[in-house]
Amino acid sequence: MSMSMQQINEERLRKRICQFKDDSEYRSLTEYLIRELASGHVPMQLQAKAYNELGLAHLQLDEPLEAEKSFLSAIERDPQAINPKFNLANLAMYAQRYDQAGEMFHEILKMEPSHLGARFHAGLCLAMSDKPDQALPYFESSAAAAPQAMGPNFWAAETLVAQKRFREALPYFRRATEITPDHRESQRGVAICLLETGQNEECVEQCDALILSGQGAEYLAWQIKGDALIEIGEIEAAALSHLELADMDFDARDFLIMRTKELRKEYPHYVSRYAAVIIDVIPELEPAFNGICKDSEEEL
Fold it and tell me: How many Å apart are CA 123 and CA 103, to the nearest integer?
């Protein structure tokens, strides 16, 4: 039988790959693809796709070095192939080689400006490199192009928060929670932005929803809720909220002292009320709080 008669066509190759994937037989898939590629059964126009699939199978087996070799082989056979370039760039990003990955994503965008994955991940590389101002346009454009995608909305909000642009960040966090209601980082982001923009009543409601959801200790939610209650003027309730932190972490007692010192600067007339609640629950903190309260009274 001639080589041409032995060659596999695209439909047959696709079906065999799908069979292995459906059964999660990734080791068998790598063995099959390596065997077919070595035998010469895969025609040149399909080799880039086959090597790309081989790389993806290696990733499923937690073999990133082998995956990288496969993606490079795919690109050698078809320098215009987008998928292996994207997968290779993702490998670099996951390895925290953000500059290298960013260059690769930008190369993809030159070839295919509408590639949403490359645009979003280019933004991630910049964000992970502590360049939120440069990352933001990538996230905003990705969110606009894919309004049902949670990731771009969340990261647009995160980069805006990093720039202390809380009012602009809030709609992105809200959108992220609409898309993925159980994404707790976005829910916390909403609470932070509500606090920072003076929407304290809603902030308390948001924190209560996080706390009542029962999905783990909500340290940050109790802290933010207490801060929002201070802004509302509900000082005793604020102190009780902050006291929840001490139940979760003994070191939070230091936070209670620090927060009282901050309160002395912000609202000195609230300090004695706040401290009284803390001391009633944790009497051993009284010496530390007495000095703070005395200083506050002298300032008044």
Answer: 11
Find the Cα–Cα–Cα–Cα dihedral 252, 257, 263, 264, rounded to 10°. Answer: -170
Lowest mean pLDDT among 6-10, 44-48, 231-235, 249-253: 6-10
Q: What's the rounded Cα separation, in Å, for the pair 219 and 225?
A: 10
The distance of Cα 108 from the centroid of its chain, to the nearest Å, equals 23
What spatial distance separates the first Cα and last Cα of the chain, rounded to whole Å? Answer: 99
- Give me the residue label for tokens 């309160």: 263
Over residues 171-191, mean pLDDT: 97
CA distance 273 to 239: 9
259 in Cβ contact with 245 (< 8 Å): no
Contact 50, 13 (CB under 8 A): yes
Task: Express each pLDDT in 62-109 by its tens digit.
Answer: 999 999 999 999 999 999 999 999 999 999 999 999 999 999 999 999
Tokens 């645009």 -> residue: 119
In total, the chain counts a number of residues equal to 300
Which pLDDT band, with edges at 50, 70 and 90, does 3 fall under? very low
Decide: 286 and 279 in contact? Cβ < 8 Å. yes
Distance CA 171, CA 169 (A): 6
